[in-house]
Amino acid sequence: IRLDLLLLENQLQFFVIERLHHLAFPSLSDYNGLLELSYNYFGHFNMQSLQALPNVKIEHFTDLLPTFQIPPLEKQQKKGNQQNDLLNTATQLHEAGVKFEVVTSERRFDIKFEKGVLKIPPLKLDNWTEVVTRNIMALEQTRYIKDTYFTDYLFLMDSLINTRKDVDFLCGKQILVNYLGDNSAANSMINNLNKGIEWIAVRNDYIDLYNKLNSFYENHWHRRQATLKREYFSTPWRGASTLAAIVLLVLTFIQTACSIFK
């Protein structure tokens, strides 16, 4: 029932439900009381642990979902006037030397790239994820077309994930928490979520993120350095063997040089 109440096509205006609540429970009826009841009932989605405040206005239950996870107005990122693309997947970025790190955050949108480390809050994939996300994105397309936080986020994740290999890698980093049981199903879900969605422009901090990641990948030194680490220093034993070979080579060179000068 809870999931059905969140579907966009099932919505009644909140003021209608408020009126019905008043008729059924006149002694308990006020807007904030009903809002608090709604916050508690749908608390599974309340990532910021927000409290129901009198100044919070929602149109219907689906409207609660972005309310739970979109930053407060004073912290919201402005939109740019362009559509920058992330050109490489998670595994491609990793092979180029980008480190991936899961971070704790109340908002899944807080993705940062600092000093070669891409920091991403975990994304849980379960049987609710697809339905809930599609309804939020549909709501953004109709009401929040200038503040499409979920849409921007899903386009970013879709750029990082192209094959099951990307899902396997991100699950290994605990950035994806897959309760679906099948990484191929997770890959298919993420790649299909943004189909039919109009993407007008991306938020400014994501434009900056895309530019940084693309520049990092295009830097040939980063890729050579990553290849060197992967081929010769991927494990302590391999690193020790590589160092031993280098030392042996240096000693051989010194011995040869000494023999020549004698």
Mean residue pLDDT:
79
Fraction of residues in helix:
40-55%
Physical arrangement of strands within the biggest beta sheet: 1-3-2
Rg over CA atoms, rounded to whole Å, is 25 Å
The total of helices stands at 12
Which class best fits the helix and strand makeup?
mainly alpha
Q: Could you list the spans in which at least 5 consecutive residues all have pLDDT below 50?
A: none
Tell me the distance between the termini. Answer: 90 Å
Question: What is the number of independent domains?
Answer: 3
Shape: elongated
What profile does the largest beta sheet have?
3 strands, mixed
Summarize the helix and strand pattern as letters.
HHHHHEEEEHHHEHHHH
* Beta strands, count: 5
Strand content: 5-15%
Concise synopsis of the structure shown:
This is Upf0481 protein. The chain has 262 residues and is mainly α. It has helices at 2-6, 14-24, 31-41, 64-69, 90-95, 129-142, 149-160, 164-172, 183-192, 204-218, 220-232, 236-261, and strands at residues 99-102, 112-114, 117-120, 123-125, 176-178.
